[in-house]
Structures are given as structure tokens and as C-alpha cells.
Design brief:
By secondary structure, the protein is of the alpha/beta class. The protein folds into two domains: 2-76 and 361-475, Aspartate Aminotransferase, domain 1; 79-359, Type I PLP-dependent aspartate aminotransferase-like (Major domain) (Aspartate Aminotransferase, domain 2), CATH 3.40.640. The protein has 16 helices and 15 strands. The strands form three sheets. Strands 4-10-9-8-7-5-6 form a seven-stranded mixed beta sheet, with helices on both faces. The chain has a four-stranded mixed beta sheet with strand order 1-2-3-13. A four-stranded antiparallel beta sheet has the order 11-12-15-14. Strand 2 and strand 3 (60-63) form a beta hairpin. Helix 4 packs antiparallel against helix 13 and helix 15 (416-427) crosses helix 16. The radius of gyration is 22 Å and the shape is globular. The two termini are 27 Å apart. It binds pyridoxal-5'-phosphate (PLP). The site of pyridoxal-5'-phosphate has 16 residues, from helix 6.
């Protein structure tokens, strides 16, 4: 029974069943690539420019989600491509157990100067570069544990994360994550040292009649309760996405939530780790989404928009004074991957930062995000099956409901999100629908994360195509 449930969740979450039905272009058995879905046929992407990707059949797709909130500056940005080429001409790779490199130093310096700061810190940050978001969070967990070790607080062995979160696909990051569809199959392998509290998601978790203040107190208060339950000096850190991404569909925190989280972490000596793999690097209208919350975390993990899709790049930023605890203690971080601080990847990251600086495009995201929100509201706020429109900047979520009066979701068995993904592809649109919004199985949303270079015309094209894809998919199950 459990196995059947797991299989169903996998099918509906990853869309195998629906992709098979999709008329894709490559032949099924001729590919020796181990694709994400083995019984699906994917179109072959052959070129990408601006906000469009083209396949080998000549079909164009409007990129409405940057893939998975990756392509922040769109495709084919010559400045970034040139920076990578120049770095490759000079030096592609020098192992970081022997050398540092100019692009890594430049990017770390830029992130340090731009990182969140307040009166209580000297403001500096050190950055450990990796190749993606999972590695970034995995690295953050180990770094946090080593910081506790340097302090002599070796009894600290647990992390606290949130239900309905996503922090990556490795064993530790899945242990931290709360996304049932990706955890179920691997549950026996996962660490039990990652406890969960509720997400800060009022649309689904605020009780009827509960005031905003009471909801804020309850959602943040679960952290304190969990820390106390685990016992004195047992917790290393708390990890949360600033704006919840793929699993919930662009849910910003309620005002004051992270201030309260910071207070609780400080009270118990727990490190506050903020996952900005999706929400960071300008996606929400500020370079760091946490800057909107007025608190400084202890660590920030980054990926996706950091390299903009031009190179695989992730990072852990840690407050300088915490890095110094390791520097003045053991001296070395007991961790490493071959491609840590890859020079060509860091060159891409530094070039992305230069584009941000020279164009002021992140300020534009804040403004254009409001235009997109208004257009989405105009198109969908009276839609009989859209229960919530949410998000920040160019990070937007649309939650689908069966019944707008009660917000009852569609049953997970329909796989609505994956039907929308397929219908959108048919329309020539890349967006990011996901099922399981309510409880890991039921409920569906569509996440949008367009490139920052979008114009209002692109927004209109996105909304038209998405509207047709949603209506067609719902018609198929109602
Ligand atoms: C918030 C968040 N953290 C971590 C990850 C993992 O990143 P990656 O897929 O690059 O390993 C993701 C990926 O979607 C994410 O959204």
C-alpha cells in the first residue's frame, strides 16, 4: 500500500504519465542519456536567445520560469559569455586545494560588500563556492556543525527545517526538505537529525478566525517549542527558504516572521541559515530576499541566479566572524569537492554581478514585478479555479483550487500541475507547475520566475498562453 502511494506521488509529481502522452521529438530508445523521466520523450533544445528557447523542430518556447528560477538575465547574454570565454582562455581550472583564482576572489568580494548587514555586525561575509544549490545547503550543514565543534558545543547534532520546503536532492538536503514526493521513496535513507516545524504559509495554514499576530506567533513559536523539545544545546541550526519556492509556489513570509526567527535563534545559540537558492540574486526585487525582512542571518545559500544558468554555480555565504571561528580554531574546513570555486563558474557569477551593477536591473525587477502582479490579477482574480495569487518581484505563484468558496484543492490523483506543464509546453511556454501544495499530494500551483529582461509584452504573452494551458487542463478533469 505504501509502495503504491509512493509510486502514485512520483508519477503525479514528476509527470511521467503525462509526458508519455506528449508528442516530443527525439526517439525513445535511441537516447543513451539517463533522462529525468525514462519513458518520456523530451524535445531537444538547440538554441536560446533573450527570453526564448528553440527546439530542433524549430518551435519557440517563451521562458516564463527561467527553467527553475535560473535564467535571471535571459539567454545568450554576450557580456557573460565573453567573461567566461576570457577566463577559459586564461585558465579553466586550478584545484582549490592548491590555488585561489581571480574570479573567485572578485565574486566573494562583491558578495561580501553587498551582503546583508546591520549595526551589530562588521558586515563582511566569506563565501564558499560550490556547483549548485544542493551542494550549497549540504556545505552549510557541515560548516554549521564545524562551527559548533570549534565552540566545543559538540552535543549539537540536529537541524530544524520546515514542512513543505525544498533544499535539494542529496541525502542530507532531502532530510532537511519537507517535500513528500521527493522524500517518500528514500525515507529509509534519510537522517532523522532534521526535525520539521510548520511553514509560514497563511493561505493554507492560518486557522479560520486566527489573527495575523496569532498566526505569526504560532508559526515562529514552533521553532522555540522544537528547540526546547530537543533539549539543551542539541540544535545546530534552523534552515528556511526566505520566500518558499517550488514546493509551495512563491510564498513570501508574513511580516515580522524572520525577525522572530532571528530572536529565537539568538536566544538558543542556534545558527540561522537562509536558503536563497531560488529567491535570492534579485529574483524578489532585492539582491538578497532576506534584506526585505530587516534581519541578518548567519549563513545564506545561493545558486541558480548566481550563475544565471551560464555555469553551474552555488555558494554558501557565512558571516565573517563565524568563518573566523574556524580560522582561529581548526584552521581548515573539513569538507571539499573537486569543483569548489571553479574559475570559469566564478567568472560567470562575477559577470552576472557586473550586469546587475551596470544595468540596475534588480531595481527594475521590483517595479516590473508589480506590473506582472497587476496583470496576473487582472487575468486571473475572477477565475473560478484560481484561489490565490502571491509572490514578490519576479517570483510569482498561482494556486489552483477546485472550489473557490472553500479553497478545496483538486485531488492529487488528477495530476493537474503536470497537465498544465504539458499544455503550456504545447502552447510554447515554459512555466513551473507543481503538485502537492497542500499536503505533499493534493493541491496544485504554477510558479513563475521570468528572466529580469521581460517586457510588458512578454508578460502578456505568458499570461495568454498560461491561461489557455490552465483552462484546457482543468477542462480535462472537471
Ligand atoms: C530553495 C532551493 N534550495 C535548494 C535547491 C537545490 O538546488 P540544486 O537543484 O541546484 O541542487 C533548490 C532547487 O530547486 C531550491 O529551490
Amino acid at each position: 500500500m505504501v509502495a503504491v502511494a509512493v509510486k502514485l506521488r512520483l508519477l503525479y509529481s514528476y509527470g511521467a504519465k503525462f509526458l508519455i502522452a506528449n508528442k516530443m521529438t527525439n526517439k525513445s530508445n535511441s537516447s543513451r542519456v539517463f533522462h529525468r523521466t525514462l519513458n518520456a520523450l523530451f524535445p531537444q533544445a538547440v538554441s536560446a536567445k533573450g527570453v526564448y528557447i528553440s527546439d530542433s523542430a524549430g518551435k519557440q518556447y517563451l521562458d516564463g520560469s527561467g527553467g527553475a528560477a535560473v535564467s535571471c538575465l535571459g539567454h545568450g547574454n554576450q557580456q557573460i559569455i565573453d567573461a567566461i570565454k576570457q577566463q577559459l582562455d586564461k585558465m579553466a581550472f586550478a584545484h582549490t586545494s592548491f590555488f585561489t583564482s581571480e574570479p573567485a576572489e572578485e565574486l566573494a568580494e562583491k558578495l561580501s560588500q553587498k551582503g546583508p548587514r546591520d549595526k551589530t555586525t562588521n558586515g563582511a561575509w566569506r563565501t564558499y563556492f560550490v556547483s549548485g544549490g544542493s551542494e550549497a545547503n549540504e556545505t552549510a550543514f557541515k560548516m554549521a556543525r564545524q562551527i559548533m565543534f570549534e565552540r566545543g558545543e559538540t552535543s549539537r547534532s540536529h537541524f530544524i527545517a520546515r514542512q513543505q520546503s525544498y533544499h535539494g536532492g542529496t541525502i542530507a538536503t532531502m532530510s532537511a526538505g519537507g517535500r513528500a514526493a521527493s522524500r517518500d521513496l528514500y525515507e529509509p535513507l534519510l537522517s532523522t537529525n532534521f526535525e520539521k516545524i510548520m511553514p509560514c504559509f497563511p493561505f493554507r495554514w492560518q486557522k479560520s478566525g486566527e489573527s495575523d499576530e496569532a498566526f505569526l506567533a504560532r508559526s515562529s513559536g514552533e521553532l522555540e517549542t522544537m528547540i526546547e523539545k530537543l533539549g539543551d544545546r542539541r540544535v545546530i541550526g534552523f534552515i528556511a527558504e526566505t520566500v518558499s519556492g517550488a514546493t509551495l509556489g512563491a510564498v513570501p513570509p508574513v511580516k515580522g516572521y524572520f525577525k522572530e526567527i532571528r530572536r529565537i535563534c539568538d536566544k538558543y545559540g542556534v545558527l540561522m541559515i537562509i536558503d536563497e537558492v531560488m529567491a535570492g540574486m534579485g529574483r524578489c526585487g532585492k539582491l538578497f530576499a532576506i534584506d526585505e525582512e530587516g534581519v541578518v542571518p548567519d549563513m545564506i545559500t545561493l545558486a541558480k541566479g548566481l550563475g544565471g544558468g551560464y555555469q553551474p554555480l552555488g555558494a554558501v555565504m557565512v558571516r565573517e566572524e563565524l568563518a573566523q571561528e574556524i580560522e582561529q580554531g581548526s584552521g581548515a574546513f573539513v569538507h571539499g569537492h573537486t569543483y569548489v570555486g571553479h574559475a570559469a563558474a566564478c567568472a560567470a557569477g562575477a559577470a552576472v554581478q557586473r550586469v546587475f551593477e551596470e544595468t540596475g536591473i534588480i531595481d527594475e525587477v521590483a517595479v516590473k514585478g508589480e506590473i506582472l502582479a497587476a496583470k496576473l490579477a487582472q487575468a486571473f482574480s475572477d477565475h473560478p479555479h484560481i484561489g490565490d495569487l502571491r509572490g514578490r518581484g519576479f517570483f510569482r505563484g498561482i494556486e489552483l483550487v477546485k472550489d473557490r468558496e472553500t479553497n478545496e484543492p483538486f485531488d492529487g490523483k488528477h495530476g493537474l500541475a503536470m497537465k498544465i506543464k504539458k499544455a503550456a509546453m504545447d502552447e510554447g511556454l515554459i512555466c513551473y507547475p507543481m503538485g502537492g501544495t497542500v499536503d505533499g499530494f493534493n493541491g496544485d500551483h504554477v510558479m513563475l520566475a521570468p528572466p529580469f529582461i521581460y517586457t510588458p509584452d512578454h508578460m502578456d504573452e505568458l499570461i495568454e498562453k498560461l491561461g489557455r494551458a490552465i483552462d484546457k487542463s482543468i477542462a480535462g478533469i472537471c
